[in-house]
């Protein structure tokens, strides 16, 4: 169902890799709600995914960009403003990567070159993106910038590895840059802390199926899907949330406020029998 929440609004969506990704689902929902956008991803990610299919479906242009490169980001922002016919109203940052996770290096035995690369892709790229948007005055007043995160930024999930540190840094950047963006440009900046979601990136984390099953048993409403996260993101892009900024917003079925659930306790009790 469409409510025309984003009619006339323009933006950039980072990270739509395939139909499982939250960015992909969000792009579809933005299109349904009347928004227009440019899609972007790193050239190597674009070769791995099927972003052309999404672009065709939504009538969107693709502008490849390495989000760790300020030069690429400047070309992306300028190209998006030109393609869409004006300043931007929303940006979704939905990218993250850990080489240590991908190659099975334990948190206590990191390859620090890989760690730095992961930090640059997963967190510093968010600062670089906002700096380019800020310096070029590319956002309309009351625009909205959203990045996706996970609660391993606050609590220990051992196999989430250095991605937990990256997400903590990402959330800090959202608050710190969000202050200046709000004060100077009337633009809001928030992060969404989503349930564990079976995206291509998420499934690369060791024990991910266990994450999902545990969170499902802990959460009174169950895990939020990628589609439901897209719906929530749309509300943050809309004018209905104009005074929401500097927030890390949990979209996790209530998991983040749980200590233990009956279902989890029963599983432990049964295990002891």
UniProtKB/TrEMBL annotation:
Signal sequence region: none
Chemical reaction(s) catalysed: a 2,3-saturated acyl-[ACP] + NAD(+) = a (2E)-enoyl-[ACP] + NADH + H(+)
Phylogenetic lineage: Bacteria, Pseudomonadati, Bacteroidota, Flavobacteriia, Flavobacteriales
Claim: Glycosyltransferase is one of the keywords in the record: no
Full protein name: Enoyl-[acyl-carrier-protein] reductase [NADH]
Catalytic center residues: 150, 160
Highest taxon listed in the record's lineage: Bacteria
EC number(s) from the headed UniProt entry: 1.3.1.9
Pathway assigned in UniProt: Lipid metabolism; fatty acid biosynthesis
GO molecular function: enoyl-[acyl-carrier-protein] reductase (NADH) activity
């Amino acid at each position: 169902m469409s409510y025309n929440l984003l009619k006339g609004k323009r933006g950039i969506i980072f990270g739509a890799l395939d139909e499982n990704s939250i960015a992909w689902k969000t792009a579809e929902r933005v299109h349904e709600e009347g928004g227009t956008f440019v899609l972007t991803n790193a050239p190597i990610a674009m070769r791995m995914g099927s972003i052309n299919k999404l672009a065709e479906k939504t009538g969107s242009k693709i502008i490849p960009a390495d989000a760790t490169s300020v030069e690429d980001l400047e070309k992306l922002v300028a190209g998006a403003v030109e393609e869409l016919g004006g300043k931007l109203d929303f940006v979704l940052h939905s990218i993250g990567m850990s080489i240590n996770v991908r190659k099975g290096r334990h948190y206590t035995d990191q390859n620090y070159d890989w760690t730095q690369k992961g930090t640059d892709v997963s967190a510093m790229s968010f600062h670089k993106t906002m700096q380019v948007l800020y310096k070029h005055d590319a956002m309309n007043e009351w625009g909205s910038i959203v990045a996706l995160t996970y609660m391993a930024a606050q609590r220990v999930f051992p196999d989430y590895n250095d991605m937990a540190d990256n997400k903590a840094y990402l959330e800090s950047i959202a608050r710190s840059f969000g202050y200046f963006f709000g004060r100077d440009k009337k633009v809001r900046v928030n992060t969404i802390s989503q349930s564990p979601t079976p995206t291509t990136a998420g499934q690369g984390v060791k024990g991910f199926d266990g994450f999902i099953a545990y969170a499902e048993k802990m959460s009174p409403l169950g895990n939020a899907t990628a589609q439901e996260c897209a719906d929530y993101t749309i509300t943050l892009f809309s004018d209905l949330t104009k005074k929401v900024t500097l927030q890390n917003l949990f979209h996790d079925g209530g998991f983040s406020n749980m200590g233990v659930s009956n279902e989890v306790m029963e599983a432990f009790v049964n295990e002891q029998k």
